[in-house]
Amino acid sequence: MSQSAVAVSAPGKVLLAGGYLVLDRKYNGLVFGLDARIHVSVKPFASSSGVTFSEITVKSPQFQDAVWEYGYRLAEKDGGVKVTQLRVDADFKLNRNPFVETALAYALSYITSVGSSNISPSSITILADNDYYSTSSASLTGARFHDFGVPLAKANKTGLGSSAALVTSFTAAVLSYYLPKETFDLTTEAGKRKLHNLAQAAHCAAQGKVGSGFDVASAVYGSCLYRRFSPSILSAHGEPGTPEFGKQLVGIVDESGANGKWDTEIVKDQVKVPKGIRLVMCDVSCGSQTPGMVKQVLAWRKETGAEAENVWEGLQNVNEGLSRELVQLAESGSKDYSELKQRILAIRRGIREMSEQSGVPIEPPAQTELLDACSRVEGVVGGVVPGAGGYDAVALLIEDREEVVQTLRELLSTWKIEGEVDGSMGKVSMLRVKQEMEGVRVEQSSDYAEWSE
Ligand SMILES: Nc1ncnc2c1ncn2[C@@H]1O[C@H](COP(=O)(O)OP(=O)(O)OP(=O)(O)O)[C@@H](O)[C@H]1O
Ligand SMILES: C[C@@](O)(CCOP(=O)(O)O)CC(=O)O
């Protein structure tokens, strides 16, 4: 068992094309990893009293009250590892973190099923790159990891997929810490595949539903064309502590169980960004969110049958067209972006058709106006509402020149966008993130020493 500190990071994501379609294995999605990462470091638990407990402490020092202490024990009947959040005193209300708790229980259950059952106490630190949460630029101090000064639940997420990047880097760090390299090596393809399977299982369990998993896949593999796994792979197992959970989990992760191999498809070489082009993410803060958009769109698709299928097929075609054009430009070195512009516009037309027919505001008029205005800026190739769409964000492809970024910033600095529910006016801010090809990565644990005391 390894006892030296380890650290791992995993990227956030943006689903540039394929929202909703990617939920169905017939279609795929173009997902970019982003250079905003979540970092997790694990080190031995330093007991000041000399007494050691069976305890794993997790903290997220950028937020208030973000410390979670867990006891753990091997469950009977091969139930894996049951973790229990510890209370400081009987009256203390537990502040639970479902993603951390589930990722820990899943990782320890896997570790004790394939390796040693002797889990030593450890101390885990989570650090998120600053762009995962919005702050006024005045409060940014230039610190590598900003202190957001609020509890995690009050932080304004920018929608970069924090839970998927967290579960992926957390699982990878815990596995690397407790398992010998022969059993788990993150730098190998086999290691990444195990990580992908385990992180998908934990992430689905924590969010209480089986989504498409594009966010976990890009956290592991980075930018890719993604075709989802069959949801049945994750539909039949128990939860940590229930009989045979250990065996079931190993079957899922090592692909040795009744469901056999995962059918996820990750294609890396059909995703390229031409030199001279970059992705820009803009966060839209409207004070309104659209719950249940996915449910509504899928219900409409089911009701409408062939009509909806036509929209889906049409979108798949133009989505594929976008990735093909990006690859073609990257390989030819051409700087003629007129075709790329047309392909982005074709995707937007498809999304608006899906919006209109389903009655779900995927590219609502306020976002159409914003995207049109951005697209008129010299050097902006075009943009879309990424992922599930709505009022949350826009993603743009621009020529990577400082003056383009500057003009866009000026345009957005005064832009007001009307929210959906209460008519409140929101702001639009350009995040500092751009696309990144690489997925999960082993880091130097000493780089985080300052924050993991
Ligand atoms: N820095 C962090 N420290 C600890 N836990 C975190 C951190 N960031 C995210 N989490 C966990 O992830 C949860 C947020 O997940 P959620 O799925 O709501 O957001 P998201 O993944 O950022 O969403 P989106 O897919 O829209 O980008 C938090 O409630 C917490 O449990
Ligand atoms: C609508 C959907 O296809 C994409 C959601 O993406 P995002 O969380 O808005 O980035 C759902 C999914 O793929 O799980």
Detailed description of the structure:
The protein is of the alpha+beta class. The chain has two domains: 6-268 and 438-451, Ribosomal Protein S5, domain 2 (2-Layer Sandwich); 277-434, 2-Layer Sandwich (Alpha-Beta Plaits). Helices cover 34% and strands 21% of the residues. It has ten helices and 15 strands. It has helices at residues 98-114, 162-178, 189-207, 214-221, 245-253, 293-304, 306-332, 338-358, 365-376, 402-413; strands spanning 6-17, 29-44, 55-59, 67-74, 81-85, 122-128, 224-227, 265-267, 277-285, 380-384, 393-399, 416-418, 425-430, 435-436, 441-443. Strand 4 and strand 5 (81-85) form a beta hairpin. Helix 2 crosses helix 3, helix 2 crosses helix 4 (214-221) and helix 7 (306-332) runs antiparallel to helix 8 (338-358). The longest helix has 27 residues, at 306-332. The two termini are 23 Å apart. The model has no long low-confidence stretch (mean pLDDT 93). The site of adenosine-5'-triphosphate has 17 residues, from helix 1, strand 6 and helix 2. Pathway: Isoprenoid biosynthesis; isopentenyl diphosphate biosynthesis via mevalonate pathway; isopentenyl diphosphate from (R)-mevalonate: step 2/3.
